[in-house]
User: Which sequence fits this backbone?
């Protein structure tokens, strides 16, 4: 059962890359992801129904006490089932809706990624894990909203949704950090028991405010509501799934998770309840005046989310139960309406209410599905919406108990406008079908089947209340939802219908000019556009295309970041007694630097740079650092070969005139150089460095080695090394891609020197053998995978220069992947044995101890060799410029 819990969010995520490559059959993988997660969740239902919870805990970041914790309780299970069930229907709908549309692989891949992330939000027990899945939903929704990226409105809507929800997510992360500091844990299952401790902490109010910012932005509460209607440019399956049934409900779900912790505080009720009510009424009012059918439904969703938020804002268990019941009913009826809207647009080519009408005769199935959904939405008895609104009225106290009824008039108004698409006079402008299959609109069965399922679900849940009552019992609530139909119920519905008809007639027109900016959140939209414009201006100012300018910014920024530490440092005397030969090496290095800065020949500059590096390598050797010296020599050798290869392809071999602001370069270089030396002295003479030195020396036997430099790279800081070689692989791929785009490829030139070929036949194999020796013994002496890779690449370069580079031409990109997979794969072994990632061990084979980290070294070796050869091969293949 626990392994099933692990795969609930990760099954769709694991299928996403396959869907990206599947293209035409990607919908099958989408269906497998949704149906598979549903099949994993359903067996958990009986156990959760008995009051038990299922949990999974994996040690993730031991140093920070962060655990990958998942938990399924009643609330999480209901929310996860909603995501998976609706996901199945959405995939079936999208298959028909996107038939013949290019890019289906990318669409279903993003849909699977989003589905897995939402399931992760539902079953996460750690707030850190929840946050990661939370932000993944924003990223996936960005791709889904912007699916039609050729449309500027789609790009704009996707960008607004991303910035608002990710910005709220960052605020939420701050709240998680403060909450963890106050409670000593970020696990939801433990937080409830520490409620008093958290609420009395000085940072509790700030933590709550930041967490609410994340919830409000995700669930489109005023004033952050504007991104949701703007996202309606997305394909209809996206609107129905993300913006009606799942993603926008994540904010309310977070509120329900936090309810046991903060629900009884005055601050909770003072913020959440008013924001929810304001959103409820404002979204409902604005919805009535929309002409675009999807925009009307979007603003109606904003209002519905406001009601759910207000119910959570009551801070009571009844409010929680009413909010969840309302979210379930809303997913059924609003999902139906979005799917019907997509079918109408698909058949008529428009979503304008002013152009649509009388479609009940040509699209009767769509009309019936829409009617059932609207009846549930306005709260007609025998529908799920009626039960949900009845429980909502009981959850509010005093005059607020009338809020659902008052808002129901507005809901009735925009519900009538939706039905006018099917039952009204003829449209003023004849719509144009876009399906291409018929001259007149008709019912598309593939599109309406999922809509019909959701519409009938709303009716079925209302006719059989015990099913919803059982759902509420998963939360610990016991309710009798059906109280019959009284005369007052009929009278209330009649008044609501009459009021809705009047309001629909009064407001069924564009909003007044003064209110339109408020409806779309124009103030925040302009602020957001201003932020993006400022970012573009800053990019234009700083992205000059000159590496010199980029280096200047990097150096100045680094100096500014290090300056506070330099000012607060405890200084010891920087004077060190130098041996005469060390002083000579420093003078030689300084002279080489001066030559580099003053000569005008590129060839001389390259040689002077190499001389600087080799001199530094000799200085490392003098200071008893053979690892550094060996690495420096090899790096300088390979770099020198690469630079000479580049220079040989240039038509002009001299350096242009000195930069007009060369004095600035000199000043920055001098200041940064002095500051770097000072910072190095501060680090080396400070307590942390001395403590680490003793720590590494004491722990070296446990790592099975003696060379501290190698042990730090492979064992103690292996994750850093894995990240660095990943960057190296990406950089190598970038070099190959850019070079191939820059010039046409020319035939590789054949080497002709007999003397060079003779020497190479002996030297190259010897170099490779020595490289393999350094690879195998790096744990105990100078060497390791990085050095061995550079040496092997040097031997291959030598062989290519002697016999022609086509002899060593290979698909080195495959080596990049193989090395990275091997290095990263060694970390999985530790996880399987219950240890942290990249934990290595020692095996004894025939009396010889072999560290398992040798496989990590082999991966580094393969990747470094491949990266170097890919760069050399690509540069050599580039033909001279015309």
Assistant:
């Amino acid at each position: 059962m626990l392994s099933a819990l692990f795969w609930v969010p990760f099954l769709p995520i694991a299928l996403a890359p396959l869907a990206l490559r599947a293209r035409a059959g990607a919908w099958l993988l989408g269906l497998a992801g949704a149906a598979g997660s549903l099949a994993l969740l359903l067996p958990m239902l009986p156990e959760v129904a008995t009051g038990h919870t299922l949990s999974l805990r994996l040690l993730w970041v031991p140093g920070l006490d962060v655990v990958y914790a998942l938990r399924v309780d009643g609330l999480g299970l209901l929310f996860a089932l909603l995501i998976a069930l609706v996901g199945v229907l959405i995939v079936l709908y999208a298959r028909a809706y996107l038939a013949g549309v290019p890019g289906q692989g990318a669409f279903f891949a993003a849909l699977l990624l989003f589905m897995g992330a939402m399931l992760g939000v539902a079953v996460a027990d750690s707030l850190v894990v929840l946050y990661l899945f939370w932000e993944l939903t924003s990223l996936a929704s960005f791709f889904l909203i912007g699916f039609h990226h050729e449309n500027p409105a789609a790009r704009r809507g996707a960008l607004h949704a991303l910035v608002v929800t990710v910005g709220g997510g960052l605020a939420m992360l701050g709240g998680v950090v403060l909450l963890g500091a106050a409670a000593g844990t970020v696990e939801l299952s433990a937080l409830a028991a520490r409620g008093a401790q958290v609420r009395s902490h000085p940072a509790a109010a700030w933590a709550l405010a930041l967490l609410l910012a994340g919830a409000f932005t995700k669930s489109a509460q005023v004033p952050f509501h504007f991104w949701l209607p703007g996202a309606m440019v997305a394909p209809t399956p996206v609107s129905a799934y993300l913006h009606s049934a799942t993603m926008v409900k994540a904010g309310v779900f977070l509120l329900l998770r936090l309810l046991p912790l903060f629900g009884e505080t005055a601050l909770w009720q003072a913020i959440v309840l008013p924001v929810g009510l304001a959103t409820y009424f404002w979204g409902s009012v604005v919805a009535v005046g929309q002409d675009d059918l999807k925009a009307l439904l979007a603003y109606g969703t904003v209002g519905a989310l406001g009601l759910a938020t207000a119910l959570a804002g009551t801070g009571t268990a009844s409010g929680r139960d009413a909010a969840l019941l309302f979210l379930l009913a809303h997913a059924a009826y609003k999902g139906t309406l979005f799917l019907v809207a997509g079918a109408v647009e698909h058949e008529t080519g428009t979503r304008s209410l002013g152009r649509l009408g009388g479609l009940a005769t040509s699209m009767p199935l769509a009309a019936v599905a829409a009617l059932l959904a609207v009846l549930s939405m306005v709260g007609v008895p025998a529908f799920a919406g009626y039960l949900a609104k009845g429980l909502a009225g009981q959850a509010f106290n005093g005059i607020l108990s009338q809020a659902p009824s008052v808002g129901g008039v507005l809901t009735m108004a925009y519900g009538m406008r939706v039905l006018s698409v099917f039952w009204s006079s003829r449209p003023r402008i004849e719509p144009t079908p876009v399906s291409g299959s018929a001259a007149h609109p008709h019912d598309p069965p593939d599109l309406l089947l999922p809509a019909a399922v959701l519409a009938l679900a709303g009716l079925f849940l209302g006719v059989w209340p015990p099913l919803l009552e059982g759902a509420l019992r998963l939360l610990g609530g016991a309710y009798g939802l059906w109280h019959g139909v009284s005369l007052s119920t009929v009278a209330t519905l009649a008044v609501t219908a009459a009021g809705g008809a009047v309001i629909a007639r009064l407001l069924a027109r564009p909003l007044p000019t003064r209110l339109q900016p408020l409806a779309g959140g124009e103030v925040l939209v302009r602020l957001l556009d201003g932020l993006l414009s400022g970012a573009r201006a800053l990019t234009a100012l700083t992205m000059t295309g000159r590496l010199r300018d980029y280096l200047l910014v990097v150096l100045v920024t680094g100096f500014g970041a290090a300056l506070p530490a330099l000012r607060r440092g405890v200084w010891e005397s920087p004077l060190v007694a130098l041996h005469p030969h060390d002083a000579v090496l420093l003078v030689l290095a300084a002279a080489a630097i001066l030559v580099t800065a003053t000569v005008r020949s590129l060839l001389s500059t390259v040689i002077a740079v190499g001389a600087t590096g080799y001199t530094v390598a000799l200085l490392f050797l003098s200071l008893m650092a053979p690892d550094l010296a060996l690495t420096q020599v090899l790096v300088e050798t390979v770099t020198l070969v690469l630079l000479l290869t580049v220079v040989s392809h240039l038509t002009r071999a001299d350096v242009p005139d000195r930069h007009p602001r060369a004095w600035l370069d000199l000043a920055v270089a001098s200041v940064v150089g002095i500051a770097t030396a000072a910072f190095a002295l501060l680090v080396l003479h400070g307590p942390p460095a001395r403590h680490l030195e003793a720590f590494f020396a004491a722990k070296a036997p446990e790592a099975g080695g003696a060379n501290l430099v190698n042990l730090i790279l492979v064992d103690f800081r292996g994750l850093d090394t894995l990240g660095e070689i990943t960057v190296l692989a990406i950089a190598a791929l970038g070099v190959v891609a850019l070079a191939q785009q820059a010039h046409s490829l020319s035939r590789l030139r054949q080497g002709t020197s007999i003397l060079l070929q003779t020497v190479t036949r002996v030297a190259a194999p010897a170099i490779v053998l020595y490289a393999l020796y350094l690879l195998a013994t790096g744990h105990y002496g100078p060497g390791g995978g990085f050095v061995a890779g550079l040496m092997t690449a040097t031997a291959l370069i030598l062989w290519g220069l002697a016999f022609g580079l086509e002899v060593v031409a290979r698909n080195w990109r495959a080596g990049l992947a193989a090395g990275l997979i091997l290095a990263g794969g060694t970390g999985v072994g530790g996880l399987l044995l219950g240890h942290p990632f990249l934990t290595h061990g020692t095996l004894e084979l025939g009396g010889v101890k072999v560290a398992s980290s040798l496989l990590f070294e082999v991966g580094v070796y393969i990747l470094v060799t491949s990266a170097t050869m890919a760069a050399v091969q690509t540069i050599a293949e580039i033909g001279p410029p015309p």
